[in-house]
Structure formats: structure tokens, C-alpha cells
Design goal:
By secondary structure, the protein is mainly β. The chain has one domain: Beta Barrel (Cathepsin D, subunit A, domain 1). The chain is built from no helices and eleven strands. A six-stranded mixed barrel has the order 2-3-10-4-9-8. Strands 1-11 form a two-stranded parallel sheet. The chain is globular and about 40 Å long. The relative contact order is 0.34.
């Protein structure tokens, strides 16, 4: 399989969460990818744990809030870039990037103070070449078709 070449930031779609189209930053220092989430509320349905949360695709109050629901995969202790350790909910989502689609794991975290609503961690970088000095190697925005 040919390697997918991506830059430090790209557009992607999380197919089963909306679908959500958003910009992410590659983070080779992170094992697991992370998605901006507010009002994280776990609940049970038919014996299975789910999580309900709100996400925003862009920074700022004008950005629409989108409610999402996903099964909880597990919980994971994550050390953030500022050294703070916290236990986060982990969900699975289907990532559409370039001409490829595959499942990834995402931790849910409040990224309100961060520039990017999503980080793509190493576990999601399957057969990729990352060009850290480039951006949007796959185009300026993912087509909505």
C-alpha cells in the first residue's frame, strides 16, 4: 500500500460522529488521538456504556456546537503537554483522510484553550509519511460529498 503523505495539519472527517469535518494537527508525541469535547456525560443503554458530548469544529463562540454520542471503548490516563495527568474517556471513530478510511481511538478532552480541535496521535498514523514543514498536503478542505 502506498504511503499517505500528510502535513503538520490537515482536514479530515470523523464519519460516524456527525459526520464531522475538522482540521487536525499531527502529534507524533501523542500515542492516542484526541478530540475536543464539552459536557462529557457517560450513560448506559442495554448494558453498554456510551458517552454523550458536545464538540465545536472551530474556536470561538460563533462556531456551532454539535452533540455526539459514541460507545465508550475504555478509559486511559493521559499526561498532557503541560504535565498534568488525567483519566479520559476513549471512543472509537471512523477517520476519513485523503482517500483512506479506517477506525481510530480518540480521547475526549476540553481543548477550548487549544488552537486545534483534534490531535492525530501515532496510533492513528497508519502507513503515513508526515512532512512537519508542510500543511494541507491533501488539499485545503475535505470535500463534503
Amino acid at each position: 500500500m502506498k504511503r499517505l503523505v500528510i502535513g503538520k495539519e490537515e482536514w479530515c472527517r470523523l464519519v460516524d460522529l456527525g459526520p464531522l469535518t475538522l482540521k487536525f494537527k499531527t502529534d507524533t508525541g501523542a500515542t492516542t488521538s484526541s478530540l475536543h469535547a464539552l459536557e462529557i456525560e457517560p450513560f448506559f443503554e442495554n448494558g453498554q456504556e456510551f458517552v454523550r458530548f458536545i464538540t465545536q469544529l472551530n474556536r470561538g463562540k460563533a462556531s456551532p456546537k454539535i452533540q455526539c454520542v459514541a460507545p465508550v471503548t475504555r478509559r486511559k490516563i493521559v499526561t498532557s503537554s503541560n504535565g498534568i495527568r488525567e483519566k479520559r474517556v476513549v471512543i472509537k471513530a471512523v477517520l476519513h483522510l485523503g482517500d483512506r478510511i479506517w477506525p481510530i481511538e480518540l480521547t475526549l478532552a476540553n481543548r477550548s484553550s487549544m488552537r486545534y480541535r483534534m490531535l492525530l496521535g501515532r496510533d492513528a498514523m497508519q502507513n503515513m509519511l508526515i512532512k512537519p514543514r508542510k500543511a494541507f498536503c491533501l488539499g485545503k478542505q475535505l470535500s463534503l460529498t
